[in-house]
């Protein structure tokens, strides 16, 4: 092989090597960060209907039949966005429920600062008793910490305690399809806290909630279906005092997470 041909071949090899190094040395990893998700609950006793916000961004609203925003908002016992999660970028936010009606439009009745991590799920709750004078109510955020691996042959259930005047309470589930004993769905949960997701056999359950060390049911709900491969949150809201009016009696909400 003559020298000219050898230099030509070596030149081609060098150009190829340099191109390959440049191509692989820098990777384009720009773009939006991983999304997180959040769900919104109005479990504040006596609250007006609200729209939910993350900082100044409206996360939920209800449209009227005319296509304009309704002034009803999410009322007590309701879940924003039809029970669906709303996507949100990771970061630190002030989550709030703001009055939906025209008289006190957009007045924040609860504001809670919370940090949202990438690829995580959360729930924001209004809770406690609404103070008519100060227009304020409690609120809290819990992470919806789904199990890393799921048995698709079973349902998963967790308990959230949004009752301001309760002690720590435990959720119990009795499968009406079998003769199995009543099961405790996780540990006792204090106010403004949520338990772990617990696997249960597919079936229809009678639910009850009791204070730690007590055999007395504070709240019951019959014939709740848990389907295999699904994940649910049972949320307790209301007033557990014996003198609570009928509208404020404690109740159990069943919301599908997945």
How would you describe the overall organization of this protein?
It is built from 1 helix and 18 strands. It is mainly beta and 258 residues long. It folds into 2 domains: 113 residues, Immunoglobulin-like, CATH 2.60.40; 113 residues, Immunoglobulins (Immunoglobulin-like, Sandwich). Strands 1, 4, 5, 8 and 9 form a 5-stranded mixed β-sheet that branches. Strands 10, 13, 14, 17 and 18 form a 5-stranded mixed β-sheet that branches. The protein starts with a helix and ends with a strand.
List the helices and strands and how they pair.
Layout: H1 3-25, E1 36-42, E2 50-54, E3 57-58, E4 78-79, E5 86-88, E6 91-99, E7 108-116, E8 121-131, E9 136-143, E10 154-161, E11 169-175, E12 183-184, E13 193-194, E14 198-201, E15 203-211, E16 219-226, E17 231-237, E18 251-256
Parallel strand pairs: 1-8, 10-17
Antiparallel strand pairs: 1-4, 1-5, 2-3, 2-6, 6-7, 8-9, 10-13, 10-14, 11-12, 11-15, 15-16, 17-18
